[in-house]
Design goal:
It comes from Natronolimnohabitans innermongolicus JCM 12255. This is ABC transporter. Keywords: Membrane, Transmembrane, Transmembrane helix. It contains eleven helices and no strands. By secondary structure, the protein is mainly α. The protein has one domain (4-184, 198-260). Helix 1 runs parallel beside helix 6 (100-129) and helix 10 packs across helix 11 (235-260). The radius of gyration is 19 Å and the shape is globular.
Length: 266
């Protein structure tokens, strides 16, 4: 059973962004309306052939959902940790009877909730532009929860490492987002002319996240270009398994950093 302290910390962190929708939910909503309008209706209307039989606007939806989910999960966790350090109120949490694992899970869970809410908002916006039907619901939910938790975990590390607010901006805008944009959000691996270009893309972990969400939402995966035919249909599940293990590792690292007080006692 969850402790009172854990529930209180989780509730505080959730209310922190729920109470400021103009700062947390409106910006990604407006940004994605522009994405769908510009890249979908204007650019997509000039693309004669669908991508793997999928209309271009529909093809965009999973990638934009991933972008919004992980960006907001990362931003929420990193800002919450850094702001607590900056204003020194995180010490109240550290001196509470909560275990380090409970602290980390509360921060990760609340940040993942924000990421998932934004992901749903983006999917709803996409639904206004193009019909969407979920092909693999359970797989989609599992993937979204895992990637939201993964980047919330990364966000905690970012919040501990950052020395000023500019560091948080650099991490989100100049490291995270470029990886997503080159992670098969706006294109399919099918579009590459050479095999080396495909394998180069596979070095980007975002490719697997976008592909997994696309498989859950649309039932389409680009992994059949690189996986043996006999295993291609299991590739999205293998990706989810690897992402799950990576999430557990990152959260374990978060707990360890809290335990040794890294970045918390400056």
């Amino acid at each position: 059973m969850l402790s009172v302290g854990f529930r209180a910390l989780f509730r505080r962190e959730v209310l922190r962004f729920i109470r400021r929708p103009k700062n947390t939910f409106m910006p990604p909503a407006i940004t994605n309306v522009l994405y769908f309008a510009v890249f979908g209706l204007i650019l997509g209307g000039r693309i004669d052939e669908p991508v793997e039989g999928i209309g271009y606007i529909l093809f965009l939806v999973p990638g934009l959902v991933v972008l919004g989910t992980i960006s907001n999960a990362f931003e929420n966790a990193s800002f919450s940790i850094f702001h607590g350090r900056w204003n020194e109120y995180i010490h109240e949490t550290l001196t509470s009877p909560l275990s380090y694992a409970e602290m980390v899970v509360a921060y990760v869970g609340s940040s993942a909730v924000r990421g998932l809410i934004v992901g749903v908002i983006i999917a709803v916006i996409g639904r206004l532009f193009v019909p969407i039907s979920i092909e693999n619901g359970l797989f989609l939910v599992a993937t979204m929860v895992v990637i939201a938790a993964l980047f919330a975990g990364f966000g905690i590390i970012g919040g501990l490492v950052a020395r000023d607010f500019d560091d948080l901006t650099v991490m989100n805008q100049f490291i995270l987002r470029p990886l997503v944009f080159f992670g098969a959000v706006f294109y399919s691996l099918e579009m590459f002319d050479h095999a080396w270009q495909v394998y180069l893309s596979l070095l980007n972990p975002m490719v697997y996240m976008v592909d997994s969400v696309r498989y859950g939402l649309l039932g389409h995966s680009d992994m059949h270009y690189v996986a043996p035919a006999a295993y291609a249909e299991f590739a999205p599940y293998a990706s989810l398994g690897v992402l799950t293990v990576l999430t557990a590792v990152v959260i374990a690292v978060d707990v360890y950093l809290f335990k040794i007080g890294y970045g918390l006692t400056d």
